[in-house]
Structure formats: C-alpha cells, structure tokens
C-alpha cells in the first residue's frame, strides 16, 4: 500500500476530483461488452450521486489517488464505482478503502455492504472474495455480492 494513505468521506465539493478519478480508472472498461457506464458519466451525474449519498476519497501525499461512491439504503450500504487511478493500481488501495468502509458502515447503522462486480473482471472478483464478500444474485454480465458485518 502507498505510504500515508488517507481515506475520508467526501461530498459534492469533490465532484470534479471523483469524476476525474472515475474516468481514468474506468477508461479501459470502455472496451467491455457492454461498456462500463462509468465512462459515459457526466460531472453532473457524479454530483447527483455525491449529493444523494456519500463519496469516499483516498489521498496519498496530498494527491487524490482513488474514489468511490456509496448509496445509503435502509439496511445496507451499496458501494459504487471504486476507482483507483491507473498509476496507483495494484498497491492495496482498493483493499484499504474496502476495509475502511467495513469499519465505517456500523457507525452509520449498517451491517451489510453490497456491490456489483462484472464477470469479465476476475481480479475484482478475487479482491472482494478475499475480503469475504459472497455472491447474492446474478444480473446478466455482473454479480451482486454482499458482506455481512458484525
């Protein structure tokens, strides 16, 4: 993991940063079939997500390196668009964000995290499985996974 990684909640004030990180991280997924919806998102869509829910921003040495969005449902958190900048991938940042979120969820009164992972991204599937996420439902080209928290 990168030295001095800081992870914190963010809101609409971080829209431009979250959008930039999402576009960079998901650019290669434009070639998937179907392409990732993240590459088509506008700044306005990201702002709407951050206004309705919460954002996560990870920084290292003062520079934003990863972001994600969280939808707060009554019984669980739904993680969307975990985006690690390509220059910072495979350094444990995604894992660190997931572990941080697992600590934050109970403080928000949620004891379950759900997320979607595409079948054609086996590395992502392996990360979530290693963290204890289990399949909940199949949705065509992606699987909904969940983790129950104590």
End-to-end span in angstroms? Answer: 26 Å
Count every beta strand, where a strand is a DSSP E run of 2 or more residues.
7
Low-confidence stretches: none
Overall mean pLDDT = 93
Structure report:
This protein is α+β, with helices and mostly antiparallel strands. Helix content is 31%, strand content 34%. The protein contains 4 helices and 7 strands; from the N terminus they run E-H-H-E-E-E-H-E-H-E-E. It has helices at 15-26, 43-52, 93-107, 122-130; strands at 5-10, 54-60, 63-72, 77-84, 112-118, 134-139, 142-148. It has a 7-stranded mixed beta sheet. It is globular, with a radius of gyration of 14 Å.
Brief sketch in words of this structure:
The chain is an alpha+beta fold.
What characteristics describe this protein?
31% helix, alpha+beta, 150 residues
Any chance you could write out the topology, listing elements then pairs?
Layout: E1 5-10, H1 15-26, H2 43-52, E2 54-60, E3 63-72, E4 77-84, H3 93-107, E5 112-118, H4 122-130, E6 134-139, E7 142-148
Parallel strand pairs: 4-5
Antiparallel strand pairs: 1-2, 2-3, 3-4, 5-7, 6-7
């Amino acid at each position: 993991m990168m030295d001095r990684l800081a992870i914190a909640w963010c809101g609409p004030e971080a829209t431009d940063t979250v959008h930039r990180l999402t576009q960079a991280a998901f650019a290669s997924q434009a070639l998937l079939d179907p392409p990732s919806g993240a590459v088509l998102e506008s700044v306005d869509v990201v702002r709407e997500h951050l206004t309705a829910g919460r954002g996560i921003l990870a920084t290292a040495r003062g520079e934003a390196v990863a972001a994600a969005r969280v939808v707060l449902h009554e019984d669980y958190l739904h993680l969307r668009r975990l985006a690690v900048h390509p220059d910072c991938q495979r350094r444990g940042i995604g894992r660190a964000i997931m572990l941080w979120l697992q600590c934050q969820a109970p403080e928000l009164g949620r004891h379950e995290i759900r997320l979607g992972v595409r079948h054609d991204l086996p590395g992502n599937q392996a990360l979530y499985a290693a963290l204890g996420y289990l399949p909940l439902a199949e949705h065509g080209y992606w699987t909904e996974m969940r983790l129950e928290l104590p």
